[in-house]
Design a protein that fits this description.
13 helices, alpha/beta, 2 domains, Aminopeptidase, eight-stranded mixed beta sheet, four-stranded antiparallel beta sheet, Alpha-Beta Plaits
Length: 436
C-alpha cells in the first residue's frame, strides 16, 4: 500500500505540475554552476580552515556576510546570534534555502593545505560545503534576479550540532510567510554526484541523556559495606535494551545506545561514590520517541533503586524531532535532480536513516524537503564517515548542490504554480480511491 500510494501521488503531482507555468532550463543552470565550481571550492576551503562550534561561528558568519555583500545581496544579521538570512527578489511566493554553518569539537586528522587552523575543531560533517553550496546558489540566483517572480530566502543557520539552531530561527519567525524550504547534506553513503531523498520521514528524532548514579563508596574488599553504583550502572545499561527489543514495534525504528560509562579517577580497589552514564535515544515515530524517553527515565530510576542507589537523569533540551519530507516538495526535488544529473543519478531512498538533523524543525513549520548529495569517491579519499577525524569530501560535486538549490528556488519563484495536497487528494478520490 505504501509503495503504491507514493507512486500514484507522485504521478499525479507530476501530471498537475506539467500543466502549469514555465519550464526550467536545467542545462543552463548546470552550466552556470559549473562555471562557479572553482569559486565554490575556494569558499569551502576558506571555511574549512576556520571551523567554529555552535553559536560561536563569528568568523564564519563574517565571511558569509562579506560574500553576500560582494554579491550585492541584502541580508539580516544577527538572527539567532550568528545566523544570517539573505534575500533575493521580492513579493510572493517565498521559498527558503538553508545551510548550516557550525563545526564539531573534533581534532582533524587529515593533512591538507586547508586543514583546520582552530585546534580541536573540525568541519567533520560537511557544513563548510553546505555553506559554500548555498553561496554558490545565491550567486546563480542573483544573476537571474530579474526573472524571479517571488522571493528566495538564504538561511545560513548556526548550531545544528546538538543546539537546535534551526528551532531558534523558526521561533524567531524566520519562516513566517515562507511557502517551502529546502536543505541539503553531503552524504558519504552515496556515490559522488548522486542525489537522494524520500517522502515522509527521512531522518530520526534524537536526544541524548546524561545520568549520574549515586551510591556509597567503599573498599573493594568489603562491598557489603557500600552501595555500589557500578553495579547499578551496569544494571541500567542492561535494563535499557528491552525498551527497543520488547517495547518497540518491530516495524518501527528506535535505537538506545549507551556510549559513556565513567567511574572517574581513583584506585582500582575502591568502589566509587558515583558513576556517570551517557548515551543517545533515537526513533522514527515522534509519539513512540517521547514514550521511550519517559520509559528510559523510569527504567534507570528503578534499576538504580534496586541496588540501593539513586540516579539523576537529564535529557538534551530540546530533543530533535524527526525530519519529515513533504511529498510534493520531494517531487520537485526529484524533477530538478533528474533534470540536472539524469535519472541514473537520482535515488529514491527506501528507508530513513537513524541519523538526526535539526532541519526537522523547519520542515515541521512549513512544507520542506531534505536532500542528500553523494560524496563517496575512493580516488580522492572521500570514504570516511561523518563526525570522524579523517572525514573528507569530494569537492567535484559542490556545483551540483548549488545548481539543485537554484533550480528548486526557480521552480517556486519564476511563475510556476505549486500543487497543493487538497488537489492531489481530490484527484485520487475522483479515481475512486476512498482509502485515503
Amino acid at each position: 500500500m505504501a509503495a503504491w500510494y507514493y507512486i500514484v501521488l507522485t504521478s499525479i503531482v507530476t501530471i498537475i505540475q506539467s500543466s502549469y507555468g514555465t519550464s526550467i532550463d536545467y542545462s543552463r543552470i548546470l552550466d552556470s554552476a559549473k562555471g562557479l565550481q572553482d569559486w565554490i571550492v575556494t569558499i569551502r576551503r576558506d571555511l574549512h580552515k576556520i571551523p567554529e562550534v555552535g553559536f560561536e561561528e563569528l568568523k564564519t558568519s563574517q565571511y558569509v556576510r562579506d560574500t553576500l555583500a560582494s554579491l550585492e545581496i541584502d541580508f539580516k544579521h544577527p538572527v539567532a546570534k550568528t545566523g544570517i538570512v539573505g534575500s533575493i527578489g521580492s513579493g510572493e511566493p517565498v521559498v527558503a534555502l538553508r545551510a548550516d554553518m557550525d563545526a564539531l569539537p573534533i581534532q582533524e586528522d587529515v593533512e591538507l593545505p586547508y586543514k583546520s587552523t582552530h585546534a580541536g575543531n573540525m568541519h567533520a560533517c560537511g557544513h563548510d560545503a553546505h555553506t559554500a553550496m548555498l553561496l554558490g546558489a545565491a550567486r546563480l540566483l542573483k544573476e537571474m534576479e530579474g526573472s524571479l517572480s517571488g522571493t528566495v530566502l538564504l538561511i545560513f543557520q548556526p548550531a545544528e550540532e546538538g543546539l537546535a539552531g534551526a528551532k531558534h530561527m523558526v521561533d524567531l519567525g524566520t519562516l513566517n510567510g515562507v511557502t517551502a524550504v529546502h536543505g541539503l547534506h553531503v552524504w558519504p553513503g552515496l556515490h559522488s554526484g548522486v542525489f537522494a531523498s524520500r517522502a515522509g520521514t527521512i531522518m530520526a528524532a534524537s536526544t541524548r541523556f546524561h545520568a549520574v548514579v549515586r551510591g556509597q563508596g567503599g573498599h573493594g574488599g568489603m562491598p557489603h559495606l557500600a552501595r555500589d553504583p557500578v553495579i547499578a550502572a551496569a544494571a541500567i545499561v542492561h535494563a535499557l535494551q528491552p525498551l527497543v527489543s520488547r517495547e518497540t514495534d518491530p516495524l518501527d525504528g528506535a535505537v538506545i545506545s549507551v556510549t559513556r560509562l565513567s567511574t572517574g579517577e581513583g584506585a582500582t580497589n575502591v568502589i566509587p561514590d558515583t558513576v556517570e552514564v551517557g548515551g543517545s535515544l533515537r526513533g522514527l515515530s515522534e509519539q513512540h520517541f517521547y514514550r521511550l524517553i519517559e520509559r528510559a527515565t523510569e527504567v534507570m530510576t528503578k534499576a538504580a533503586d534496586m541496588h540501593g542507589c539513586t540516579v539523576e537523569v537529564t535529557w538534551r533540551d530540546p530533543p530533535y524531532i524527526p525530519t519529515v519530507n513533504n511529498l510534493e516538495m520531494v517531487s520537485f526535488v526529484e524533477e530538478a535532480a533528474k533534470g540536472l544529473v539524469g535519472e541514473d543519478r537520482w535515488q529514491h531512498l527506501a528507508v530513513p536513516t537513524m541519523a538526526a538533523e535539526d532541519f526537522g524543525f523547519m520542515a515541521y513549520a512549513v512544507p520542506g524537503a531534505f536532500t542528500f548529495l553523494g560524496i563517496h569517491n575512493e580516488s580522492v579519499g572521500s570514504v570516511h564517515g561523518l563526525h570522524t577525524p579523517r572525514f573528507q569530501l569530494d569537492e567535484s560535486v559542490l556545483h551540483l548542490g548549488s545548481a539543485l538549490h537554484a533550480a528548486l528556488a526557480l521552480q517556486f519563484v519564476s511563475g510556476r504554480t505549486q500543487v497543493d495536497m487538497d488537489t492531489v487528494q481530490s484527484t485520487l478520490r475522483d479515481l475512486g480511491n476512498d482509502e485515503l
